[in-house]
Design a protein that fits this description.
The chain has one domain: Beta Barrel (L,D-transpeptidase catalytic domain-like). Helices cover about 5% and strands about 35% of the residues. A hairpin with a 6-residue loop joins strand 2 and strand 3.
């Protein structure tokens, strides 16, 4: 894991390059100011006004052939009921959304994938769960059927949330090498009735648009943080 700065890269003097006369102006978009965007040519940013905020904006971006970023779409977003917290020190069960730069391993949904979607997509059936049991070998993993060592009371029965999980993208928080008690089941999903338990949510139409836009060949990532930065983030 490496610590990087999210948002205002020019707050770090070594990252502020001198611009030669006649050179293109610096890219002042949010991804253009970030020290790390994941290495791909697609990026989702989820910004809240402060760590105490439960609302903000999700924007999806594309990097052009000239290396500049252009906005492809945006939507209002909701965050955890207790705001945002550093993903490197987050604790499970705190209803906080982890800040950081994360991969997007796969998509899933109770409904079929939107027409034109290219992302790896798992359809939610009656036996699909997300294990959040710290004692289970399936911790922070899709489990179908539910693993024998994962207690149902410590897992999310995905089909039980037909509105929120109509369509979703898995956020790679604590996913590659799960740390127990850090947290499990962080997704970008459809809005429910209010703030989330730690995920990022957007309106249903926006979620469908994101899934039609996301191209696994372009290595999309999601950056979650507060407006204005800089915010130290953990890249997974």
């Amino acid at each position: 894991m490496r610590l990087r700065a999210f948002a205002l890269a020019c707050c770090l003097p070594l990252l502020c390059a001198w611009t030669a006369p006649g050179a293109p102006p610096p890219d002042e978009t949010l991804p253009g100011r970030m020290a790390d965007t994941g290495g791909g040519s697609q990026l989702i940013t989820a910004e809240a006004a402060s760590t105490a905020s439960t609302t903000g904006t999700v924007t999806w971006w594309e990097r052009t052939g000239g290396g500049r970023w252009e906005r492809a779409g945006s939507a209002p977003a909701r965050f955890g009921a207790n705001g945002l917290t550093d993903g490197a020190t987050r604790r499970q069960g705190t209803a906080t959304t982890p800040t950081g730069l994360f991969g997007l391993p796969f998509a899933f949904g109770v409904e079929p994938a939107p027409a034109g979607a290219r992302y790896p997509y798992r359809r939610v059936g009656p036996d699909a769960w997300w294990c959040q049991d710290n004692g289970s070998r399936a911790y922070n993993r899709w489990s179908e059927p539910l693993a024998a060592d994962c207690r149902p009371g410590e897992a999310e029965h995905l089909i039980g949330y037909p509105r929120q999980y109509a369509h979703a993208l898995v956020v790679g928080f604590n996913y590659r090498e799960p740390v127990r008690e850090r947290g499990a089941g962080v997704f970008l999903h459809v809005d429910g009735s209010g703030a989330t338990a730690g995920c990022v949510s957007v309106p249903a139409d926006a979620m469908r648009r994101v899934l039609r836009w996301a191209d696994p060949a372009r290595a999309p990532h999601i950056a979650i943080g507060t407006a204005g930065g800089p915010t130290a983030i953990t890249r997974y």
